[in-house]
Each structure stands twice: as C-alpha cells, then as structure tokens.
Amino acid sequence: MSKKKVLVVGGTGYLGQHLLQALSEIQGTPYDVSATQLSTPPPQPLLDALPPSFSFFHVDLKSGSGFDAVSLKFGQPDVVVNCAALSVPRVCEKDPDSAMSINVPSSIVNWLLSFTEDKETLVIHLSTDQVYEGVKSFYKEEDETVPVNVYGKSKVAAEKFISEKCSNFAILRSSIIFGPQTISPVPKSLPIQWMDGVLAKGDKVEFFHDENRCPVYVKDVVTIIKALTDRWFSEGKQMQLLLNVGGPDRVSRVQMAEAVADIRGYNTSLIKSVSASSVDRGVMSPADISMDITKLVQTLNICPVTFRDGVKLTLAEEAKS
User: Can you tell me the distance from the alpha carbon of 87 to that of 152, in angstroms, rounded to the nearest whole number?
Assistant: First the structure.
C-alpha cells in the first residue's frame, strides 16, 4: 500500500511549522509529507527536527513556479493544506495586487486541476474571521461576508474561487492563532509572547477594549486539520465544508492582556484601556468578529481550549524552551 500524500503549502510559516511537527510525531508516520516554502533554503532547525523523509519545495504562489518540481518528485497529493498567506492587513492595504495574487490560491488550484489521474485531492484552506463585517457578536458560517479591508476581501475571493473550482474542500475561517513559538522562530510578533514581554517591563501599555475576537490555540487548529485529513482518508466521501475556527471565548485585547498579567502575576494597572479609533493603523479593522463555533464542535467533535488555558499552555511551553 502506497502512503497517502499530504502537501503543506507555507510549511515554514507559523501554522505550517506546527502542523509539520505534529505530522512528524504521529506513530508509524502514515503519510508521505512534503511542504512548500518561498524562502530558500528551508531553515536548518526545522529540517533537523523533522524526519529526513519530509521534503521541501521552493514554490512561488504568485507565479506558480516550483509546482512542476512537486509534480515530478512528489506527485499528486491526496490532501493539500494551504497555510500560506499575506496576512498583515496593513501590508495588504498597501499592496492589494499582491494580497489578491497570494491569498487567492489560483496557482495551487490550477496545478491540482492539471493532474489527469482519477484521484481526488482535498484542499484544506485557511481563511479568516476578517471576512465578517464586525457589527455583531458570534457570526455563523452562513452570515453574509462583508469585509472592511483588502485582507478580508482577498480571503472572500479565495473562498469563492475554491468553492467554485474544487470538488473537495474544507475552508477554515480562523481567528487570531496563538501559541508557542515555532521550531525555527517566525519573524512576526506572536500575541501572547508580545504581551508577556511588554508587561514584564513594568511600563504602562495601551490595549484596545472595543475590538473582539475568538483567539484559537495553534494546537487546536492542527488537531482540526488532522481530523479533516483522517476523515478524508477513512471515508473518502465528497467533502465541501466551511467552518468557523475560533476558541470558545470572545475577548478584547484588554482582556487578552489581563489574562496574561493574571497568569504571570503582573500588575494589571499597567494595562491602559483605549479605543481602537484612537490609533491610526493605516487600515480599517472590524470591531467584533467573534464567531459561533457550534458547527465545528458538532462536525468534528473537537472543543478548542479556553483562551486562558491556551495562554497557560503557551507560557508553560515558552518557559521550557
């Protein structure tokens, strides 16, 4: 029996690294795993931590260059997990063309459509809570998508493209993903570690009180991706899923910081509550994009950990490393 093939697009990013690490820890490694990355070569600490059977390919999602090498050496994947994105809203706002060309996975989907074998591929695509307008609490999957910025618009376009072109997909609208640092540290600032760092200095810091999200612990996102992959391999039935992927708690930045301060024993009077409108971030930001995750829990029987527990797990892991 040949092993099932899983391709992780954006394997050197935050979620990609956590996913690859989790796949490498499955007993008996039931899958052939490959990953794509834009920078070359892949970071050495990541290569050292993964089995030698895991291969990396240099792929440019804008042009699609590099997919030929994947076809040649790896073949058609059974599952593609797309973790790659231009995900900083301010950057997307300044360069909408790049946001669209990277966030709408046309090069991935067109490459998959080029295979002539009678084999179905499941595309698991990471979308965002920023597809919602942000004018109410606990959005459901069937609520209208009215993004207020280019990042959200590019993700809505991606969802539409995938649902029209792919016969099998799972679109995951993820909130802020938080958790421990990756094997090879990512350059972007991680929310819990950043809050911990600034509060540890003992200086007053401003946090927004009027923007609400449902942050989700990274290992819960990985568990969800693995559950979808397992279901695809065991049942082999057509899958067309759209799921909100958030944690169970609706929290503001102030509440996030207060949880970190409380767990670490910092002085909560350092946390200064301000309105999001008091800061010009160069991009519109939705006020309340908290999500209802009932469908996720019912479909996969997975209950993401509470925000507070996720923070505890994150800080405990950081202390170990």
Answer: 9
Q: Which of 109, 119, 220 is nearest to 169 (CA)?
A: 109
**Digit-coded pLDDT (tens) for 185-242:** 998 899 999 999 999 999 899 999 999 999 999 999 999 999 999 999 999 899 999 9
Alpha carbon of 125 to those of 221, 246, 289, 308: distances in Å?
A: 12, 15, 19, 27
Residue 311: Cβ within 10 Å count: 25
Residue-averaged pLDDT of the chain: 96
DSSP string spanning 171-185? Answer: EEEE--EE-SPPSS-
| 0.85 exceeded by pTM | yes
Task: Name which of 102, 97, 92 is nearest 285 in CA terms.
Answer: 92
Q: What is the pLDDT of residue 321?
A: 80
**Interior/surface letters 116-150, b for 16+ CB within 10 angstroms, e for the rest:** eeeeebbbbbbbbbbbbbbeeebbebeeebebbbb
